[in-house]
Amino acid sequence: MAITPQKSELNREFIEQKKFTFDMLSDPGNQTAKSYGLVYALPEDLRKIYLQFGTDLPKYNGDDSWSLPMPARYIIDPKGIVRYAAVEPDYTVRPDPEYTIAALKELQT
Prior knowledge:
Low-confidence stretches: none
Shape: globular
Strand content: 15-25%
Structural class: alpha+beta
Mean pLDDT: 93
């Protein structure tokens, strides 16, 4: 699943557009992301750049915080213990899915 601060209706549209086969949950106000220490607020100069490219975070997220979560991948066991974490402040860098799959396989043994 994916968790995003975007409003639920925008998530549904995005899932349909991209034909995703996984759930996308809404995290209003980045509350879940905050609990993992993943949220950062965009500085004023970046806000202007985002708006120039048509990305209006307050419109998409339904609040005026201008905050985003860092991309992260977690494996959390049924007891709520984080067993794998991959966090990258640079949104253009994502871990290869093979690392996550390997971590899942390791936890099964």
